[in-house]
Amino acid sequence: MASFKPTKIQVYPKLGEKVTQDTLYWKNYKAPVQIKEFGAVTNIDFSPVAPHNYAVTAFTRIHIYGPFSQEPVKSFTRFKDTAYCGRFRSDGQLLVAGCEDSVVRLFDVSGKVALRMFKGHTKAVRVTDFTSDRYHILTGSDDYTCRLWDIPNSTELTSYQEHTDYIRCGITSKLNRDLFITGSYDHTLKLFDARVNKSVMTMDHGQPVESLLLYPSEGLLVSAGGRYVKVWDLLKGGQPLVSLKNHHKTVTCLCLSSNGQRLLSASLDRHVKVYNTTNYKVVHNFDYAASILSLGLAPDDESIVVGMTNGILSIKHRKSSEETKEISGQQKRRPAYRVFVKGKNYVPKQDDYLVSKPVKQHLAKYDKQLKRFNVSKALDTALETWTRFRKPEITVAVIKELDRRGTLKNALAGRDERGLSQLLNFLVGNLVDPRFAPVLVPATEMILDIYQSVIGQSPVVDVQLQRLQDLLEREIGYQQDLLEVLGMLDTMFTSSLPRKEVPCSGISRPNGLAQGDASLTVL
Amino acid sequence: MVEHGDIRVVHRGGSKINFREPVLSHDSRLLLCASGECVKVFSSSTEECVHDLQGHTDLVTGVLLNPSNHLQAYSCSADGTVRLWDFTDGILIKVQLHCHHVSVQPLSVSVFVYLLMCMCVTLTRLLSSSQGEYIASAKGLHLEVYFFKKQKSYRFSLKEDNKKGAKNTFTCLSCHPKDDCIATGHEDGKIRLWRNFNHKREYTYSTLHWHHSAVSSVRFTPEGTNLLSGGVESVLVQWRYNQETQKDFLPRLGAAITHIAVSPDGELFCTAHSDNKLTVIQSCVKVSAVIQGLVKGESVRTDLMVDPRSKALVLNGKPGHLQFYSLQRDKQLYNLDIVQQEYIHESGLQQFEVVKAAFDTRGNWLATVEERKQKDSTLELNLKLWAYDEQTQSFVLNTTVSGPHEARITAMCFCHTADSQTTMLVSASQDGHFKAWQLESNHYFYEGPFWSCDFVGAYHSLVPECCCFSADGSLLAISFQEVVTVWSPASWELLTTLSQPPGAIRDLCFGRQSCSKYLLGTTAKNLLCCWNLLTCTLEWSTSMDVSLLLSDPLSENMAAFCSHAGLFVFKPSEPRPLFSHKAICSGKVTRAVFAPREEMLESCEESSQWLNRSQLYFLTQYMDLMTFITKAEEDRLMASSKRLVIDDSVAVTPFYLLLGKHRQQQQEKQDRSFSAERNQLPQGSVAIKELLHTPAHVLPSASFLCSMFVRSLLISVTDKEKKSEEEEMESDKEEESECEMEASTMGQGQTAEAQETAAPALTKAQARELRRVKKLDHSWLSSLLDS
């Protein structure tokens, strides 16, 4: 005697993103902490020394946050106008910032008042940075010049006036104290050597340059401008290596993950994209609420900090391994292990008489009803609220099974107002799903046949039926539109494609027209 | 024409065992059932076939225990004979010739003769009460009860159908062994219990209703306490007699119940099922054994195949299953559940059916297609791929492709290459496409290897009908109606098209081995064409009405079955057929397969050489599995069966062993001492042999035998023996020493055989006594046996 074979639930392939190592890694962050700043957050810089505080430049202030604090540890508010580009020195002791009023200020991280003020620029200073020897400051300004300043004497060392538009980004070499690169709205990147008084290398980005990034090895340079992210090989004299166009608005910020394997780009289109630096393919994508102006990544990727145009600073912290375990442990409290092994490891002795207990087959609720041929009850169980919303495939599988048994009509008939409206509710939700439509469309026809006599008797059912009708009309409209588009595409393909000698290949062909054409060419 | 006198077409197993009601022996240990032209005796505990009672020359139509001797059974057959068998030993005892066509189902021997005489062929069921007072028969809407004593019959009729749509046609009946009660089953699932039927007017009946469709069998247990019934639902229902509300059920017996039998002691029930299965059920309603024959439906949707691993014949069996049937042992090995759904036993319901199946060369992969077509809904198709699991020794589902094509799949085949790592499956469908499926190693979503579509091809939006891979797997031929296209599976390039109008291609086959450059095809316009693939031209064609074309995987031979059941075996390269045979069976040959032999035959005759490496099995229109057998093979089989018979007659009793051993010793001694005159050795005489070999129950009583035996001892010895008595004394001593020798070897227990241990050790005195008995004259026995 065979045992009852349970209803087979069809496994549908999961739609959407593929699950890769990268998605697992980048999804392993907690829900973001959001902090409201006074204005658009233009720059985020992490301190190179532990505990890795970060400076957030927003409107006329620079706030320094601790790694896990939601309140600023420190604030610099002595700016006359909008502050720009607050950056830490490599020892984490000093902070430099430009300002709309063309003055560059140098702060002690523990102090409040500016230690030095560098005056000389004539327009807003958008770019500031320390050189690798820690005694000089690089600044770039909207007056088309970039300058080097000496910190101890607070004097200007050199000024380069090669750009022909605003300088909006710049970076100093971490390996050589004399090298620095600037990017400007004149579409060029220029590499300067402080030992000579002019640029040594010029690269054309093609769009106003918004952000620059050097690889730790400093052989490769990444620039962002317009919708493009471009990678340049400096060792080959500034040869363009690759050009990425994955955003649909201006890319504003670039960042490198701590191991140098992943590149992050943030854009005004509200996305942060993660690239693999070996093949420059997008491996992950973050969505944010507003256009992103600045992006910061803590050492070891411990947190991702994003500043947006609406003044919101969003901080995501990485989940620690214990936390992930704890959460899953809390969700489901299962019986202890010894409950399951109780008596299982008892070894029978020689004289023991073994009474074998028949193994009881575990069946789902709907299967129990199906086993007893209670078709209506089986459908009721499958239409329970939780199943209906969370696992519609189970409900569909039960309907399919009832159809196979030839008893679907019996199961659907004889329902009261509540039962019928529940059923119709399910149909409205899932009827147009292409995975379920082959099963649900005949069932819907059956329902309409059975209950056509009660139309107009109950307002609840009538509302549901009206919804169903609307849904179907909309769906028919969509299908028509799609067919029209398909027809247009076919005409385009047939007129544009060269006639191939290879017989039709590929996974699927749109319709009979192209198919006939393809097979004609075979001869 | 080639001479084919020494090749014969024979039936090969797989006959129906559910044709008639099975019979359980008195001790419930043996189960008898009619199976084709023989009666099979199964053990009800081990499910093994104990004996095959062969002798009838036509279909056996009934089996019945002999009521006067419970170790004998009658069988009747369509050849007009009734035979009496000793079924425990498998011996034919008596043949009664009867001129008429015997096809009734006798159910009680007390009326056996009556049945034979009345020849009620048209009656559906016949039954008599155990006391033999009356006999009941039912036909259509009438129940007729005939009383022997009164010589009178009563007839009860039911209306055809009442207002509620009940169909009252009788389907089966059973008489209560003690009470005057007849249970009848009806078309609409009702069971009626008739009482008081010895009066024409005052009869009554009560109705039991559980079955939803026709009751196919009802049966009372020997004590009359329970009533068993079964039908299409494949549920055995046990009703308590007089307490009909209490029922026991045994559900999911696998297939519709056709017959129910109960052993005379009531210990075991046996149900016969429509899928050629017998189920032995204990009286506590628990299945204890299942005897499964070859399942044969109305048609074989899948082709006949041979599993490369088990060499078993594979075809679709019970609904939704694929059966593996061992041709050598005539036994079903196992059923593979393809559909994996609960089977609903209801007539008129469209179920999933396995329609196509294919094995790859090494038997690692099995591909199956199941389909279900409802009246007005779309066709449901599933393509399933099964991997062979070494651990469980069976196939495990690997990939399910739901809806692989939009219409019916017309053909499916695996690539034949034996050495390549990648396997390929090609399926062709009525939707005008063919698809190639390949094993993919890994995927982000699925674990382990799985199958996915590799290529979709079409040709002029014609419907592909057949597909075939060449022997080395480098070419794929697909026929699109009248055109044969040849593709390269490596690059999916269309290499060439071959067409030989007129007529759509029906069958395609590549040549094997030395003939691999040929491609053969048959067309609907009765042409057999052979293309040469090197020159891409038609090599030859002949007008021939071929219904089936297949190639032997182990040789270059091909077999073509004509629609009038003719067979031609030929090599594509030679103009003359190797073998031809007209009308191998009645009707058309529907399916055929070349099954490789376990050991090659060493036949050098030209006409039978094609049977050396593989054997050709085929299914006729009437679902008989048949094969070809050569004379030499037949002789060998006969010899082996004869040897078996001789072995059987040597009943291993301690007494016989003892005598046999002494006989051997004495024969040796005779050779030594020239005492050839003593020809009257007891165990040598025919009479003694018969006495020893005849079952004890057919012998006269022991007291009767004893007196005669003792009397025979009084007869004096002859003169010759007196003379040789002195010699005898000497030889006695020798023998004694020999006996001792043997005893010592037995003590060591190393070479002692089971037979020797079974024989009780004899004391010297007993041995001497025995020897004296042997010398006596036993002519008395032969006279006894003659009388």
What is this entry, summarized?
The complex is a heterodimer of chains A (523) and B (787). Chain A has 523 residues and is an alpha+beta fold.
Please specify the SSE layout and strand pairing:
The complex is a heterodimer of chains A (523) and B (787).
Chain A: H1 21-27, E1 33-36, E2 41-46, E3 54-58, E4 61-65, E5 72-76, E6 83-88, E7 94-99, E8 104-108, E9 114-118, E10 125-130, E11 136-141, E12 146-150, E13 155-160, E14 167-172, E15 179-184, E16 188-193, E17 199-204, E18 209-214, E19 220-225, E20 228-233, E21 239-244, E22 251-256, E23 262-267, E24 271-276, E25 282-287, E26 292-297, E27 303-308, E28 312-317, H2 321-331, H3 337-341, H4 365-371, H5 375-382, H6 385-390, H7 392-404, H8 408-412, H9 417-430, H10 437-451, H11 459-496, H12 512-522
Antiparallel strand pairs in A: 1-28, 2-3, 3-4, 4-5, 6-7, 7-8, 8-9, 10-11, 11-12, 12-13, 14-15, 15-16, 16-17, 18-19, 19-20, 20-21, 22-23, 23-24, 24-25, 26-27, 27-28
Helix pairs in contact in A: 4-5, 5-7, 9-11
Chain B: E1 7-11, E2 23-24, E3 30-35, E4 38-43, E5 49-54, E6 60-66, E7 69-77, E8 81-86, E9 91-97, H1 112-118, E10 125-128, E11 134-139, E12 142-147, E13 152-157, E14 170-175, E15 181-186, E16 190-195, E17 204-209, E18 215-220, E19 226-231, E20 236-240, E21 243-250, E22 257-262, E23 268-273, E24 277-282, E25 286-292, E26 305-306, E27 313-316, E28 321-326, E29 331-337, E30 353-359, E31 365-372, E32 380-389, E33 394-402, E34 409-414, E35 424-429, E36 434-440, E37 450-457, E38 464-469, E39 476-480, E40 483-488, E41 493-499, E42 505-510, E43 518-523, E44 527-532, E45 537-543, E46 546-551, E47 558-562, E48 567-570, E49 579-581, E50 589-596, E51 614-620, E52 625-630, H2 631-649, H3 654-673, H4 686-693, H5 702-713, H6 719-723, H7 725-748, H8 754-758, H9 764-775, H10 779-786
Antiparallel strand pairs in B: 1-52, 2-3, 3-4, 4-5, 6-7, 7-8, 8-9, 10-11, 11-12, 12-13, 14-15, 15-16, 16-17, 18-19, 19-20, 20-21, 22-23, 23-24, 24-25, 26-27, 27-28, 28-29, 30-31, 31-32, 32-33, 34-35, 35-36, 36-37, 38-39, 39-40, 40-41, 42-43, 43-44, 44-45, 46-47, 47-48, 48-49, 50-51, 51-52
Helix pairs in contact in B: 4-10
